[in-house]
Amino acid sequence: MTETTSQGAAGRHAGRHAAAASRQVTSQLSASLPVLEVEDIPQQTGTPVITFDHVTKVYAAQPNRPALDDISLQIYAGEFVFLVGHSGSGKTTMIRSLIRELKPTSGRIIIADEDLGSMRNWRVPYLRRNIGCVFQDFKLLPNKTVFENVSFALEVIGKSRHVIKTQVPEVLRLVGLQDKLNKMPDQLSGGEQQRVSIARAIVNRPPLLICDEPTGNLDPQTSRGIMDLLERINRTGTTVLVATHDREMVDNMRRRVIALDRGHLTRDQDRGVYGFNV
Ligand SMILES: Nc1ncnc2c1ncn2[C@@H]1O[C@H](COP(=O)(O)OP(=O)(O)OP(=O)(O)O)[C@@H](O)[C@H]1O
Question: CB of 79 within 8 A of CB of 40?
Fold first, then answer.
Protein backbone atom coordinates (compact mmCIF):
# COMPACT_ATOMS: atom_id res chain seq x y z
CA MET A 1 0.00 0.00 0.00
CA THR A 2 1.29 3.49 -0.80
CA GLU A 3 0.46 6.26 1.61
CA THR A 4 0.93 9.88 0.56
CA THR A 5 0.84 12.53 3.27
CA SER A 6 2.03 16.07 3.75
CA GLN A 7 2.92 17.88 6.95
CA GLY A 8 1.10 20.93 8.26
CA ALA A 9 2.31 24.37 9.36
CA ALA A 10 4.47 22.95 12.15
CA GLY A 11 6.40 20.83 9.67
CA ARG A 12 6.88 23.77 7.35
CA HIS A 13 8.09 25.90 10.29
CA ALA A 14 10.63 23.24 11.33
CA GLY A 15 11.70 22.94 7.72
CA ARG A 16 12.35 26.67 7.51
CA HIS A 17 14.50 26.53 10.68
CA ALA A 18 16.51 23.64 9.30
CA ALA A 19 16.93 25.46 6.00
CA ALA A 20 18.11 28.63 7.80
CA ALA A 21 20.65 26.69 9.88
CA SER A 22 21.88 24.89 6.80
CA ARG A 23 22.26 28.19 4.92
CA GLN A 24 24.41 29.52 7.75
CA VAL A 25 26.80 26.57 7.56
CA THR A 26 26.96 26.42 3.82
CA SER A 27 27.42 30.16 3.42
CA GLN A 28 31.00 29.46 4.43
CA LEU A 29 31.38 27.43 1.30
CA SER A 30 31.87 28.98 -2.09
CA ALA A 31 29.05 31.09 -3.41
CA SER A 32 30.10 30.30 -6.94
CA LEU A 33 26.88 28.56 -7.92
CA PRO A 34 23.52 30.33 -7.92
CA VAL A 35 21.29 29.52 -4.97
CA LEU A 36 17.66 28.81 -5.67
CA GLU A 37 15.29 29.10 -2.76
CA VAL A 38 13.36 25.87 -2.44
CA GLU A 39 11.96 26.20 1.05
CA ASP A 40 8.67 24.95 -0.24
CA ILE A 41 8.30 21.62 -1.96
CA PRO A 42 9.25 22.00 -5.63
CA GLN A 43 6.33 21.98 -8.00
CA GLN A 44 5.78 18.49 -9.33
CA THR A 45 5.26 19.68 -12.86
CA GLY A 46 6.78 19.12 -16.27
CA THR A 47 8.48 15.92 -17.32
CA PRO A 48 9.61 13.86 -14.32
CA VAL A 49 13.37 13.38 -14.05
CA ILE A 50 12.79 9.79 -12.91
CA THR A 51 9.80 7.57 -13.66
CA PHE A 52 9.42 3.99 -12.42
CA ASP A 53 6.45 2.42 -14.14
CA HIS A 54 5.49 -0.94 -12.56
CA VAL A 55 9.13 -1.96 -12.20
CA THR A 56 9.91 -5.46 -10.97
CA LYS A 57 13.41 -6.89 -10.60
CA VAL A 58 13.95 -10.56 -9.90
CA TYR A 59 17.52 -11.81 -9.47
CA ALA A 60 18.11 -15.31 -10.82
CA ALA A 61 19.54 -16.33 -7.43
CA GLN A 62 16.26 -15.43 -5.71
CA PRO A 63 13.50 -16.29 -8.19
CA ASN A 64 10.70 -16.26 -5.61
CA ARG A 65 11.56 -12.99 -3.92
CA PRO A 66 11.63 -9.91 -6.18
CA ALA A 67 14.21 -7.33 -5.11
CA LEU A 68 11.78 -4.73 -6.49
CA ASP A 69 8.11 -5.61 -6.77
CA ASP A 70 5.85 -3.51 -9.02
CA ILE A 71 7.35 -0.12 -8.12
CA SER A 72 5.76 2.98 -9.64
CA LEU A 73 6.90 6.48 -8.72
CA GLN A 74 7.95 9.79 -10.18
CA ILE A 75 10.61 12.26 -9.08
CA TYR A 76 10.58 15.79 -10.49
CA ALA A 77 13.31 18.34 -11.20
CA GLY A 78 14.60 20.08 -8.09
CA GLU A 79 13.34 17.50 -5.58
CA PHE A 80 15.44 16.19 -2.68
CA VAL A 81 14.33 12.64 -1.96
CA PHE A 82 15.40 10.14 0.68
CA LEU A 83 15.13 6.44 -0.15
CA VAL A 84 14.87 4.44 3.07
CA GLY A 85 14.35 0.82 4.03
CA HIS A 86 15.91 -2.03 5.94
CA SER A 87 18.94 -3.83 4.60
CA GLY A 88 17.87 -5.89 1.60
CA SER A 89 14.74 -3.81 0.90
CA GLY A 90 15.87 -2.96 -2.64
CA LYS A 91 17.49 0.50 -2.41
CA THR A 92 20.74 -0.38 -4.16
CA THR A 93 18.85 -2.39 -6.78
CA MET A 94 16.81 0.71 -7.50
CA ILE A 95 19.91 2.90 -7.80
CA ARG A 96 21.76 0.41 -10.01
CA SER A 97 18.69 0.25 -12.25
CA LEU A 98 18.70 4.04 -12.61
CA ILE A 99 22.16 4.05 -14.15
CA ARG A 100 21.34 0.93 -16.14
CA GLU A 101 23.80 -1.29 -14.35
CA LEU A 102 20.77 -3.55 -14.03
CA LYS A 103 17.75 -4.01 -16.26
CA PRO A 104 14.34 -4.61 -14.68
CA THR A 105 12.66 -7.96 -15.22
CA SER A 106 9.49 -6.07 -16.16
CA GLY A 107 8.24 -2.50 -16.19
CA ARG A 108 9.81 0.67 -17.50
CA ILE A 109 12.34 3.15 -16.11
CA ILE A 110 12.36 6.53 -17.81
CA ILE A 111 15.02 9.16 -17.13
CA ALA A 112 13.98 12.57 -18.43
CA ASP A 113 12.40 11.45 -21.70
CA GLU A 114 14.49 8.35 -22.28
CA ASP A 115 13.21 4.83 -21.71
CA LEU A 116 16.20 2.90 -20.34
CA GLY A 117 14.72 -0.36 -21.63
CA SER A 118 14.98 0.68 -25.27
CA MET A 119 18.15 2.76 -24.85
CA ARG A 120 20.95 1.53 -27.10
CA ASN A 121 24.09 0.40 -25.29
CA TRP A 122 26.20 3.12 -26.86
CA ARG A 123 23.97 5.75 -25.24
CA VAL A 124 24.48 4.43 -21.69
CA PRO A 125 27.70 6.42 -21.09
CA TYR A 126 25.80 9.58 -22.09
CA LEU A 127 23.08 8.69 -19.58
CA ARG A 128 25.72 8.28 -16.87
CA ARG A 129 27.26 11.66 -17.66
CA ASN A 130 23.97 13.18 -16.62
CA ILE A 131 23.83 11.33 -13.32
CA GLY A 132 26.39 12.06 -10.62
CA CYS A 133 26.95 9.10 -8.28
CA VAL A 134 28.26 9.09 -4.71
CA PHE A 135 28.86 5.89 -2.75
CA GLN A 136 29.47 4.96 0.88
CA ASP A 137 33.08 3.93 0.20
CA PHE A 138 34.02 7.09 -1.77
CA LYS A 139 35.66 5.10 -4.63
CA LEU A 140 38.56 7.57 -5.03
CA LEU A 141 41.63 6.71 -7.06
CA PRO A 142 44.31 6.21 -4.36
CA ASN A 143 47.28 7.25 -6.49
CA LYS A 144 45.82 10.52 -7.70
CA THR A 145 45.62 13.84 -5.88
CA VAL A 146 42.34 15.50 -4.94
CA PHE A 147 42.60 17.71 -8.04
CA GLU A 148 43.39 14.74 -10.28
CA ASN A 149 40.55 12.63 -8.88
CA VAL A 150 38.08 15.34 -9.85
CA SER A 151 39.72 16.35 -13.13
CA PHE A 152 39.81 12.72 -14.25
CA ALA A 153 35.98 12.76 -14.40
CA LEU A 154 36.20 15.59 -16.94
CA GLU A 155 39.15 14.14 -18.88
CA VAL A 156 37.34 10.87 -19.61
CA ILE A 157 34.49 12.76 -21.24
CA GLY A 158 36.87 14.80 -23.35
CA LYS A 159 36.69 18.21 -21.66
CA SER A 160 39.41 20.69 -22.58
CA ARG A 161 42.28 21.65 -20.29
CA HIS A 162 40.77 25.11 -20.04
CA VAL A 163 37.44 23.72 -18.75
CA ILE A 164 39.30 21.46 -16.31
CA LYS A 165 41.41 24.35 -15.01
CA THR A 166 38.32 26.45 -14.31
CA GLN A 167 35.75 23.91 -13.17
CA VAL A 168 37.86 21.72 -10.88
CA PRO A 169 39.06 24.49 -8.51
CA GLU A 170 35.55 25.95 -8.56
CA VAL A 171 33.87 22.71 -7.50
CA LEU A 172 36.56 22.01 -4.88
CA ARG A 173 35.87 25.48 -3.44
CA LEU A 174 32.16 24.62 -3.38
CA VAL A 175 32.82 21.54 -1.25
CA GLY A 176 35.27 23.42 0.99
CA LEU A 177 38.46 21.69 -0.17
CA GLN A 178 40.19 24.58 -1.94
CA ASP A 179 43.24 24.13 0.34
CA LYS A 180 43.61 20.37 -0.29
CA LEU A 181 44.01 20.26 -4.06
CA ASN A 182 47.38 18.49 -3.93
CA LYS A 183 46.66 16.06 -1.10
CA MET A 184 46.38 12.32 -1.70
CA PRO A 185 43.15 10.59 -0.57
CA ASP A 186 44.92 8.84 2.34
CA GLN A 187 45.93 12.25 3.70
CA LEU A 188 42.27 13.22 4.10
CA SER A 189 39.62 12.48 6.72
CA GLY A 190 36.61 10.35 5.76
CA GLY A 191 34.41 13.44 5.48
CA GLU A 192 36.95 15.16 3.24
CA GLN A 193 37.21 12.07 1.04
CA GLN A 194 33.45 12.04 0.67
CA ARG A 195 33.56 15.74 -0.29
CA VAL A 196 36.06 14.86 -3.04
CA SER A 197 33.74 12.16 -4.32
CA ILE A 198 30.81 14.61 -4.27
CA ALA A 199 32.95 17.18 -6.13
CA ARG A 200 33.80 14.52 -8.71
CA ALA A 201 30.11 13.61 -9.07
CA ILE A 202 28.95 17.19 -9.69
CA VAL A 203 31.91 18.71 -11.56
CA ASN A 204 30.18 18.04 -14.87
CA ARG A 205 27.02 19.70 -13.48
CA PRO A 206 24.67 16.75 -13.90
CA PRO A 207 20.98 17.50 -13.39
CA LEU A 208 20.62 14.42 -11.16
CA LEU A 209 22.79 13.37 -8.18
CA ILE A 210 22.31 9.91 -6.69
CA CYS A 211 23.94 8.97 -3.39
CA ASP A 212 23.99 5.43 -1.97
CA GLU A 213 24.63 5.61 1.80
CA PRO A 214 26.82 8.73 1.48
CA THR A 215 27.25 9.04 5.26
CA GLY A 216 27.45 5.32 6.04
CA ASN A 217 31.13 5.50 7.03
CA LEU A 218 31.05 8.89 8.74
CA ASP A 219 30.46 10.13 12.28
CA PRO A 220 27.27 12.14 13.01
CA GLN A 221 28.89 15.59 12.85
CA THR A 222 30.71 14.87 9.59
CA SER A 223 27.50 13.35 8.22
CA ARG A 224 25.66 16.59 8.91
CA GLY A 225 28.30 18.49 6.95
CA ILE A 226 27.85 16.14 4.00
CA MET A 227 24.05 16.46 4.11
CA ASP A 228 24.37 20.28 4.32
CA LEU A 229 26.48 20.10 1.19
CA LEU A 230 23.93 17.90 -0.60
CA GLU A 231 21.19 20.37 0.37
CA ARG A 232 23.25 23.20 -1.03
CA ILE A 233 23.77 21.31 -4.27
CA ASN A 234 20.01 20.70 -4.38
CA ARG A 235 19.42 24.44 -4.00
CA THR A 236 21.36 25.02 -7.22
CA GLY A 237 18.55 23.14 -8.98
CA THR A 238 20.10 19.64 -9.00
CA THR A 239 17.67 16.80 -8.27
CA VAL A 240 19.09 14.74 -5.38
CA LEU A 241 18.20 11.14 -4.44
CA VAL A 242 19.83 9.77 -1.27
CA ALA A 243 19.52 6.15 -0.13
CA THR A 244 20.26 6.06 3.57
CA HIS A 245 19.95 4.32 6.92
CA ASP A 246 20.63 7.62 8.70
CA ARG A 247 17.50 8.07 10.78
CA GLU A 248 18.63 11.30 12.45
CA MET A 249 19.38 12.94 9.14
CA VAL A 250 16.06 11.98 7.56
CA ASP A 251 14.11 13.06 10.65
CA ASN A 252 15.92 16.40 10.84
CA MET A 253 15.78 17.33 7.20
CA ARG A 254 12.09 16.54 6.58
CA ARG A 255 12.29 16.01 2.84
CA ARG A 256 10.31 13.64 0.65
CA VAL A 257 10.76 10.07 1.88
CA ILE A 258 10.24 6.97 -0.24
CA ALA A 259 10.26 3.79 1.83
CA LEU A 260 10.89 0.27 0.54
CA ASP A 261 10.15 -2.92 2.43
CA ARG A 262 11.21 -6.24 0.91
CA GLY A 263 10.93 -4.81 -2.58
CA HIS A 264 7.58 -3.08 -2.03
CA LEU A 265 7.04 0.68 -2.02
CA THR A 266 5.36 1.15 1.36
CA ARG A 267 5.44 4.92 1.83
CA ASP A 268 5.88 8.08 -0.26
CA GLN A 269 5.68 11.07 2.03
CA ASP A 270 6.39 14.80 1.64
CA ARG A 271 8.50 16.17 4.49
CA GLY A 272 8.68 12.65 5.81
CA VAL A 273 10.49 10.85 8.61
CA TYR A 274 12.65 7.71 8.67
CA GLY A 275 9.81 5.82 10.23
CA PHE A 276 11.11 2.32 10.94
CA ASN A 277 11.20 1.11 14.52
CA VAL A 278 14.49 -0.78 14.34
N1 LIG B 1 23.46 -9.50 -7.46
C2 LIG B 1 22.47 -10.05 -6.74
N3 LIG B 1 22.10 -11.35 -6.94
C4 LIG B 1 21.10 -11.89 -6.24
N5 LIG B 1 20.38 -11.24 -5.30
C6 LIG B 1 20.71 -9.96 -5.05
C7 LIG B 1 21.76 -9.30 -5.75
N8 LIG B 1 21.85 -8.03 -5.30
C9 LIG B 1 20.89 -7.89 -4.36
N10 LIG B 1 20.21 -9.05 -4.20
C11 LIG B 1 19.08 -9.28 -3.31
O12 LIG B 1 18.06 -8.34 -3.63
C13 LIG B 1 17.46 -7.83 -2.45
C14 LIG B 1 17.61 -6.32 -2.41
O15 LIG B 1 19.00 -6.02 -2.23
P16 LIG B 1 19.56 -4.52 -2.28
O17 LIG B 1 21.05 -4.60 -2.24
O18 LIG B 1 18.93 -3.80 -3.40
O19 LIG B 1 18.99 -3.93 -0.89
P20 LIG B 1 19.39 -2.62 -0.08
O21 LIG B 1 18.10 -2.04 0.41
O22 LIG B 1 20.25 -1.76 -0.92
O23 LIG B 1 20.23 -3.20 1.13
P24 LIG B 1 21.42 -2.49 1.98
O25 LIG B 1 20.74 -1.40 2.77
O26 LIG B 1 21.93 -3.59 2.83
O27 LIG B 1 22.42 -1.97 1.00
C28 LIG B 1 18.10 -8.57 -1.29
O29 LIG B 1 17.29 -9.68 -0.96
C30 LIG B 1 19.43 -9.03 -1.85
O31 LIG B 1 19.86 -10.22 -1.22
Answer: no
Q: What's the CA gap between 55 and 12, in Å, rounded? A: 32
Structural domains of the chain ordered from first start: 48-269 (3.40.50.300)
DSSP SS3 for 154: helix
The residue whose CA is least distant from atom 29 of ligand 1 is 88
Residue type, 113: D
Closest CA to 138 of 198, 225, 51: 198
Residue 245 Cα: closest atom of ligand 1: 25
Which of 93, 136, 278 best tests ligand 1's pocket when mutated (most atoms within 8 Å of CB)?
93
Cβ–ligand 1 distance for 62 under 6 Å, the answer yes
Distance CA 178, CA 201 (A): 17
Contact 88, 261 (CB under 8 A): no
Eight-state DSSP code of residue 232 = H
The pLDDT tens digits for 97-135 are 999 999 999 999 999 989 999 999 999 999 999 999 999
Q: What is the pLDDT of residues 64-105, one digit of tens each?
A: 999 999 999 999 999 999 999 999 999 999 999 999 999 999
- The pTM assigned to this predicted structure is 0.85
* Whether 112 contacts 155, CB under 8 Å: no
Using a 6 Å cutoff on CB, does residue 66 contact ligand 1? no
ipTM: 0.97
- Determine whether the shortest distance from the Cβ of 85 to ligand 1 is under 6 A: yes
Q: In one letter, which amino acid is 37? A: E
CA of 77 to the centre of ligand 1 (A): 27
Pairing verdict, β 80-84 and 256-261: parallel
